[in-house]
Write a structure and sequence with these properties.
Layout: H1 4-10, H2 15-25, E1 30-33, E2 39-41, H3 42-58, E3 66-71, H4 75-86, E4 90-95, H5 100-110, E5 114-117, H6 123-132, E6 135-136, E7 148-149, E8 168-174, E9 182-187, H7 188-195, E10 209-212, H8 219-232, E11 235-238, H9 244-253, E12 257-260, H10 262-275, E13 286-289, H11 296-306, E14 310-316, E15 321-325, E16 345-349, E17 362-367, E18 374-375, H12 379-385, E19 392-400, E20 406-411, E21 416-418, E22 421-423, H13 425-433, E23 438-448, E24 451-460, H14 468-475, E25 487-490, H15 504-512
Helix pairs in contact: 2-3, 2-4, 3-4, 7-8, 9-10, 10-11
Length: about 525
């Protein structure tokens, strides 16, 4: 078994070194490709990153600047990200499918020097680019017309560090419990630690074709899929939008590694049933599920259909994605999250922060080399979750088995996970409450077929009349699609305690009956 010292000794110093490492070891191996046929090998990728970094210098990007990349999965986004990193800047991958309000909120908080948009393949990115007054920008290695860039912004650079464990490599925004996004600052060491697949029995190699449809703007797609593939010299196939049929085709043609959220697997099985097409995956050697809990029935069905064990992982943005993963030989209905990665420490604590006995459930606290540096410009939120001695309070309820495997029992927070994406009820509630006919709003999650749905309840203002269709239309431009409620129910009065606190347990029970 690898020790933490072994893992850290193998890591390149910084993310940009990952491109140079690939060029040295596998120069003519395909690094990334796209469904349309575009591809780039490791040698050309490293050369493109170096030239694009010089271009960013001409555009005024320097160390400590934030560079925002509003993107869908593509080679151009990958080059822009690594070029920004090579400049010593803080690259920010942001999903182009977020609403205008969400994009503007993130940009307003991070104050990026420049914002790039993958306009060549994303209508949403083109819409955002128009609002930002972006102009075409050809970066070396990227297809002509693939990118646009905003005018330069007068922004203050952040301090940089010579220590890869303290220098920010990526700024990943995740929704906050207050409805405001939080910028998770991840170090070079944290990202590369996860990319190196520490403790994994099966790592990506030059023989692998990795199917990457998880958005690289989200942590699961970023470190666990894309960077892991590059670290091992694999060929990463970027797929901008998930399609069960496209995945089935790719599996049949030779994909060797697929990582997805439970809903992707559920949709793949549904496609197989409705089309009458038997799934074939002759080269598939590793399939991983994460981003949300998977139900035992779905796990078994996937394993039967694909003919191999489904590896279950658990993690979070604040830990650069992966914390633990189950072993490939785990059989049947075992849905534990498996043992933690080498060097990660775990505590299971009660409400007072005291350790619980083995096997007992409590909040999971973590400490390790992939822990975030903190939330950008939000010291209060950082103090809420990071103890002075480096323990991160996950807000998840779990227990440790006698074999060291983590079992995730529940979430202490109200987080709803939709197809692997985090949705905080407070954010949706705030948008609903902005409607003039709404007095109160409450949002809960409802389990459905290996996934969760957002269910909203609203109490109208006195004398006001509003319906589900009107509220759904109101939310459409204000929230990303995955945050949109599956149902919005209008109640004369939301159930509340004498203190006025809304009784969400009652609403969750109502949601399950819908």
């Amino acid at each position: 078994l690898q020790t933490l010292a072994d893992v850290l000794a193998e890591l390149p110093p910084r993310l940009a070194d990952l491109a140079r490492r690939g060029a040295t070891r596998w120069p003519r191996q395909t690094a990334m490709s796209e469904p349309g046929g575009a591809a780039i090998d490791y040698g050309d990728f490293a050369a493109a990153v170096a030239a694009a970094a010089e271009r960013l210098g001409v555009l005024g990007v320097g160390p400590g600047d934030r560079v925002m990349i509003v993107n869908e999965n593509c080679i151009a986004a990958g080059i822009a990200f690594f070029a920004a990193s090579a400049r010593g800047a803080w690259p920010m991958l942001v999903n182009a499918r977020l609403s205008a309000r969400e994009i503007d909120t993130i940009a307003g908080h991070a104050e990026p020097r420049r914002v790039f948009f993958t306009v060549g393949l994303s209508a949403e990115a083109r819409d955002h680019a128009r609002r930002f007054g972006a102009a075409p920008c050809d970066l070396p290695g990227a297809a002509a017309g693939a990118l646009a860039v905003s005018p330069a912004r007068d922004a203050r650079p952040e301090p940089v560090s010579d220590d890869p464990a303290r220098d920010v490599a990526a700024l990943i925004y995740t929704s906050g419990t207050t409805g405001m996004p939080k910028g998770v600052m991840l170090s070079h060491r944290a990202c590369l630690y996860v990319a190196s697949s520490p403790g994994a029995q099966r790592r990506p190699t030059t023989e692998d074709l990795v199917y990457c449809t998880l958005p690289v703007a989200h942590i699961f797609g970023f470190t666990s899929t894309w960077l892991r593939g590059l670290y091992g010299g694999a060929h990463v196939l970027f797929v901008p939008r998930f399609s069960a049929e496209h995945l089935a085709d790719a599996l049949e043609r030779g994909v060797t590694i697929f990582q997805g959220v439970p809903q992707m697997y559920a949709k793949l099985l549904e496609y197989s049933r409705t089309s009458g097409r038997r799934l074939k995956a002759p080269a598939l050697r590793m399939a991983t599920v994460g981003g949300a809990p998977i139900e035992p029935d779905l796990k078994e069905a996937v394993e039967q259909a694909l003919g191999l064990r489904l590896v279950n992982g658990w993690g979070m943005t604040e830990f650069a994605s992966t914390v633990s993963r189950s072993l490939p030989q785990n059989t049947g209905r075992d849905i534990s999250a498996g043992p933690v990665l080498p060097g990660i420490e775990v505590r299971i604590v009660d409400e007072n922060g005291c350790d619980r006995p083995p096997g007992a459930a409590g909040e999971i606290w973590l400490r390790g080399p992939n822990c975030m540096l903190g939330y950008y410009k939000n010291e209060a939120a950082t103090r809420d979750v990071l103890t002075p001695d480096g323990w991160y309070k996950t807000g998840d309820l779990g227990s440790l088995g006698s074999d060291g495997a983590l079992a995730i029992v529940d979430r202490l927070r109200d987080l709803v996970i939709v197809s692997g994406f985090n949705v905080y009820p407070a954010e949706v509630e705030a948008e609903l409450a902005a409607h003039p006919a709404v007095t109160l709003a409450a949002v809960v999650g409802r389990r459905r077929a290996g996934n969760e749905e957002v269910i909203a309840f609203v109490q109208p203002a006195p004398g006001a009349h509003v319906g589900e269709a009107e509220l759904a239309q109101f939310l459409k431009p204000r929230l990303a699609p995955y945050k949109q409620p599956a149902r919005i129910l209008v109640l004369d009065q939301l159930p509340a305690a004498p203190t006025g606190k809304i009784l969400k347990a009652q609403l969750k029970a109502m949601a399950e009956l819908l």
